[in-house]
């Protein structure tokens, strides 16, 4: 009997540990806030707020980095009051995460269309920061801050563009957390969406294939990427995109990683590696999709990874190979390929 009781206690202890682990606790708390309006309202009283203006986050310069200021509920109410805004404006905020200690994080845009906009320079002067394009600030943000701001920008943009029901034409209503919108006339629920995008680093064993669009900064090349079509699997989308853009057939598809990317809309970047079929490496660039594409050697790509500085300011036409910034998933794919090739060379 005592052995039986001991076993039960051990099992009970195991499940208590699982339920009270930091990750599970945090995840279930966020789920509660998304589903329970009253719980989210309560969390908003003690939460902190990240500010945006026309989808640009408020940032503060600190050396070569940007810091992301956060305001308490009381600080935000004082700010809104100073500029003649009612505290009801806080209802427009969206939940973007929480700390391990259950401090809820929200984002509020002070300048989106349809809202009573606060003049940007006045807020910047008051808070000692600047509203800066998130794309422009990427290389100067920490990975944690960039991930949080990606989520905030995507949610704020989605709510701004989905204020009416596509079936009834009536205004939709956001729940407190901003995890969904509901049409009161027919109870249709709309959830924020992401478009799946395959991004593929194609190799022939010794080289990798990189391409550029005319909109890229001069000298910048990246992996091939494109949206998944309706009805396609990831594998089908990869094969089609590579065939469309550079006229090659690929095989040995391997999943690498994924990343949420908020530009220009919300996309889920599904990163994969693929190899071309033996003897089929001749590139035929689809000029309606790309400006250029080429094979690059390990030495060329490794040298490009070592270069520092922003490619945005480069103006010369005679540029060395430049790669996407470190926060982009394409950078990690390329870096992983270089590391793999280097290890293979050393082993040989």
- Taken as a percent bin, the fraction of beta residues is 15-25%
Largest sheet: 7 strands, mixed
In whole angstroms, the N-to-C terminal distance is 62 Å
Q: What percent of the residues sit in helical stretches (DSSP H or I)?
A: 25-40%
Lay out the secondary structure:
Layout: H1 2-20, H2 22-35, H3 37-46, E1 48-53, E2 56-62, E3 65-67, E4 71-72, H4 73-82, E5 94-98, E6 104-109, H5 120-127, E7 130-131, H6 134-137, H7 143-161, E8 173-174, E9 181-182, E10 189-190, E11 195-203, E12 207-212, E13 224-227, H8 234-246, E14 250-261, E15 267-276, E16 292-297, H9 298-306, H10 329-347
Parallel strand pairs: 1-6, 11-15
Antiparallel strand pairs: 1-2, 1-4, 2-3, 2-7, 5-6, 8-9, 9-10, 11-12, 11-13, 12-16, 14-15
Helix pairs in contact: 2-3, 9-10
Description:
- Strand 5 and strand 6 form a beta hairpin.
- This protein is of the alpha+beta class and 348 residues long.
- Helix content is 36%, strand content 24%.
- The protein starts with a helix and ends with a helix.
- The longest helix is centred in the first third of the chain and has 19 residues.
């Amino acid at each position: 009997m005592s052995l039986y009781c001991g076993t039960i206690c051990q099992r009970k202890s195991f499940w208590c540990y699982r339920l009270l682990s930091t990750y599970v606790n945090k995840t279930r708390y966020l789920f509660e806030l998304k589903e329970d309006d009253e719980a989210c309202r309560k969390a908003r009283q003690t939460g902190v707020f990240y500010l945006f203006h026309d989808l640009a986050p408020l940032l503060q310069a600190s050396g070569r980095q940007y810091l992301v200021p956060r305001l308490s509920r009381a600080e935000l109410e004082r700010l809104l009051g100073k500029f003649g805004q009612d505290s009801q404006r806080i209802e427009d905020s969206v939940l973007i995460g929480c700390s391990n200690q259950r401090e809820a994080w929200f984002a509020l845009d002070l300048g989106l269309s349809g809202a009573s906009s606060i003049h940007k320079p006045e807020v910047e002067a008051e808070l000692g920061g600047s509203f800066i394009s998130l794309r422009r600030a990427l290389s100067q943000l920490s990975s944690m801050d960039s991930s949080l701001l990606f989520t905030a920008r995507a949610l704020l943009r989605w709510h701004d563009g989905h204020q009416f029901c596509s079936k009834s034409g009536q205004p939709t209503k956001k729940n407190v957390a901003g995890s969904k919108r509901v049409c009161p006339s027919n109870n249709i629920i709309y959830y924020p969406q992401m478009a799946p995008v395959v991004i593929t680093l194609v190799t022939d064993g010794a080289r990798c294939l990189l391409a550029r669009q005319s909109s890229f900064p001069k000298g910048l090349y990246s992996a091939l990427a494109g949206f998944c079509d309706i009805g396609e699997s990831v594998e089908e989308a990869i094969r089609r995109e590579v065939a469309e853009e550079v006229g090659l057939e690929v095989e040995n598809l391997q999943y690498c990683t994924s990343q949420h990317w908020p530009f220009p809309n919300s996309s889920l970047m599904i990163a994969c590696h693929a190899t071309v079929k033996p003897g089929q490496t001749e590139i035929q660039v689809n000029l309606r999709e790309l400006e250029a594409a080429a094979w690059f050697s390990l030495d060329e790509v490794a040298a490009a990874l070592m270069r520092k500085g922003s490619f945005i300011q480069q103006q010369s036409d005679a540029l060395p190979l430049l790669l996407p910034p470190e926060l982009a998933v394409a950078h990690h794919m390329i870096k992983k390929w270089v590391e793999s090739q280097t290890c293979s060379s050393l082993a040989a």
